[in-house]
Structures are given as C-alpha cells and as structure tokens.
Amino acid sequence: MHGLAFFLFLIIVVLTLIITYFASKRTRTTSEFYTADSSLTSWQNGLAIAGDYMSAASFLGIAGMIALAGFDGFFYSIGFLVAYLVVLYIVAEPLRNLGKYTMADMIAARFDDKKVRGVAALNTIAISIFYMIAQLVGAGGLIKLLLGIDYIYSVLIVGILMTVYVVFGGMMATSWVQIVKAVLLMVGTFIISIIVFAKFDFSLIKMFNEVKTATPLGEAFLNPGNKFKDPLDTISLNLALILGTAGLPHILIRFFTVKDAPAARKSVVHATWIIGIFYILTIFLGFGAAAFVGYDKIVAANPAGNMAAPLLAEALGGDFLFAFISAVAFATILAVVAGLVLSAASAFAHDFYSHILRRGQATEKEQMVAARWASVGVSILSILLALFAQKMNVAFLVSLAFAVAASANLPIIVLTIFWRRFNTTGAIAGMLVGLFSALLLVFFSPNVWAPEPGVAILVGEPLFKLANPGIVSIPLGFIASIVGTLLSLKKADSKKFDEILVKANTGIKELTN
Q: Are 225 and 72 a contacting pair, CB within 8 Å?
C-alpha cells in the first residue's frame, strides 16, 4: 500500500465528512434535501456541475485512451464538451422554470398524469443505477490498484461514504463535495499539464512532433481510426454523448439548486468553461503519459490505460504527486456517486412515494423519511450489484446510461417544451421505446457478445454490430413520441401548452386570463 496516498485519501474522507456534518445542520426540509433550498450561486453550481460531470472515466479513462490510441481518445472529450451547448440552449432554463425537484416534475407540469410521472421516474432510476454500477466497479478496481485494498472493501468504503453524504447532508453536502472535487481536479490537472508542457519547452509543435515517435502507432497516433474503426459507430457514440448529457438525471437536478432560470443558464456557462479547460488539458495528460511513461508501462499497469494519469504524475513529480493525483481520483469517484444516489433517491421518494403512492398527501416529515430511506435503499442495491459485477466489463453501462438518457429523456423534454400537439400517449410511448430499444440494442451488441471467450460477457456473434445504440435508439425515441401522439384519440390541451410555453421561457409561475 502506498502510505502517502493512503494518508491523502484519509484527508479527503475527513474533509468531506466535515462538509457533511455542517450541511446536515441545514438539511431539515425536502427543499433543502433535494435542492439545497435553491441557495447556491451560479458559480457554486457551475463548479458542482463540473464536479458531478467530470467522472473518473473522464480523468483516468480519457487520459489513458489518448495515451494509447492518440486522436481517437479525444473523441470522448469533444462529445462531453459539445454536449453542454445542448444543455445551455435547450434544457437549462425551461427545466428550472417548470420543474421543482426532479425531471418528472417538469414533464408533469404539462401532463398531470401518474403514468407519465411513473415512467419518467423509472427512466431516472434506471439511468442512475446503470451509471452508478459502472462508477462503483471502477472505484473498486482503482482503489485496489492504488492502495492494494481488496475490491469488496473498496466498493463498501465508497458505498458507505456516498450513503452518509446523501442521507445526512442531502444536496448541500453533495454539492460541496462536488465543488471541492472540481477544484482539486482542476488544480491537479493544471499542475501536471504545466510540467508536461515545460518538458516540451512550452512548444505545441515540439510536443506534437515528439509524441509521433513515442508510441507504437508512430505517425498514426495523431490520426483518427486507431480505436474507432467503424465511422457509423463513431457517429453513434458522439450522438449519445452530445445528446445524452441533456437527459442525465444527476445533471438535470442540479438546475434546481439555484434561485432562478438566469442563474441556471449562468451555471451552465461557468460549468462549460471549467469542463472545456479540463478536456483541453487531457491532451497534455495523454501526450505526457505517452512520452514520459511509455506504452508498455501503461498497459502493464492496466490494459485499458486507466493508470496513465497517476503513472505520469509519479514520473514527473515522484511519490507526492502520485499520491496527490490518486487522492484526486478518489475524490472524483465520491463526488459522482453521491450525485447519482441523490438523483435516484429523489425519483423514488418524490415521484413514486409522494406523488403516486401517497397522491401528494404525504407530510413534510414523511417525505424526508422516505427520501433518506430511499437513499439507503438505492445505495445498498447499487453496492450489491457492483459486488456481483466485479468480473464484468462494465464499460457498456456508461454508454448505456448516455444512450438511454438521449433516447428516453431528451425527446420528451424537447417535445414537451416545443410541440403543441404532444400528448400523454406520445410521452409514455417515447420514454418506453427509448428506454427498451437502448437496452435491447446494447444486449445484442459487441459489448455483450463476442465470438472469442473472455472478450465480452457472452460468447457468440452479436446481432447488433455497433457498440453504441444511439444512432438507432435516439431516432426511435423521437419517432415513438410522434407516432404515439398522432395515433392517440386524446387531444393535447392547447391552452395548457400556451401556459407551459410562457412559464418555460419566462419563469412566471401563475398566469391569469
């Protein structure tokens, strides 16, 4: 076990528990639990969004992918960043103006139907669980690599911490853990990038020229096609990344933590700058790892390249920088899983329990108890699934989460705001078709099936050839919404649409004739 890294891990844990202690004193109502009582500033929320979004997959995965596959690794950075244009221009303000605690609140503002709310909550829980299993499995493997702690105990440590943050501190604790993580991640990434750039005499031309000879790929390192061979698969992946972010529940609920729509819009602008700078810096991490760590050493530590950034830190700054970057990676995981627990628990407690089971009659105290127990339940379920998924290649779960979010959530959000004829039948059809088409296509994809044993979960020829289903499932989500609406005998309430249109664009809550 690396002693210094373990010590910095403990500092992160103590710091986040102190944050949770103070946050718990300000978390007594459902509004405080779900949204921190909308008390965050746009800057704070922008940092929290960045902290929520820049996962271990971004920090460790993209750096490793660029180091091993060159240009193709940067595809993820582009997709993750461009996604925020969709969030900024289409989702942020209408969601803040129409919603209260969850995405289902926004849909229910137009369609006051339990089935619509129930299906929206089902999508939220499914996406959050898929995403969380991937994060927990990754956390278990990463902590085992960094500290030598057994996988089971690693998952349990992360699982218990995320439960404590959410149950006691709610959105306030989750937000500040994400803010601290975002600052640490940006500081760590910036320090390494500056050291790498200095090694190349602060010359981009020299850096690009030298990495062309630093990997087995040679000059092909800077060209596309090293990892993604099928152009259709590349397009499908980027569609899911760009459109999926606007449907991710743990990102969407962040817009309720600020006081109004202008603050939500500014949050996205702040987050986009932070995320944009971070993803540009991943080039320095990837190129630095390729040049100063080397292909063989990166692959020997982890075949997927996940240890590229910590190994680069060790090569450049010795034990202390390695320990610091490892602690940052740990904080990154904690921040993301806490946000996921909160989004899934909100959907269960607020949408299922309060609105469907109790028909909106639950008291404030009953809602708080339900929210906390839902957080515990979601955490236990995710930990158990992550323990069973230890040997599984779970990379497909992340692509599945983005694909479901883009296929099942985004069409409904867009059509709810912009299509006058859209009705409840179309909303339910779009959400269900988007959810199940993405699930089925991933099940029959190369992520699950491969002819060679050990490559995927099952042995056999995949029926669906693309690794990401987005290029098929996203259009299916829109088509099902439109066809369901047109075939339904139930007509849309035109007056209600006018009301929603005004509210979504102005934030005016009560309209008079």
A: yes
- The token pair at 84 is 């925020």
Instruction: Look up residue 22 and give its amino acid.
Output: F
pLDDT tens track for 463-504: 998 988 999 999 999 999 999 999 988 777 888 888 888 888
CA distance 209 to 200: 10
CB 167 within 8 A of CB 349: no
Residue 512, Cβ neighbours under 10 Å: how many? 4
pLDDT digits (tens, 9 = 90+) for 430-471: 999 999 999 999 899 888 888 888 777 888 899 998 988 999
C-alpha closest to that of 403 among 436, 425, 367, 372: 436
Cα gap 282→211, rounded to integer Å:
14
Pairing of strands 449-450, 458-459: parallel
Rounded Cα distance between 24 and 141, Å, is 31
* Contact between residue 425 and residue 495 where contact means Cβ atoms under 8 Å apart: no
Amino acid found at 508: I
Q: Give me the helix-helix angle, 151-199 and 364-388, nearest 10°.
A: 80
**What type of residue sits at position 257?**
T
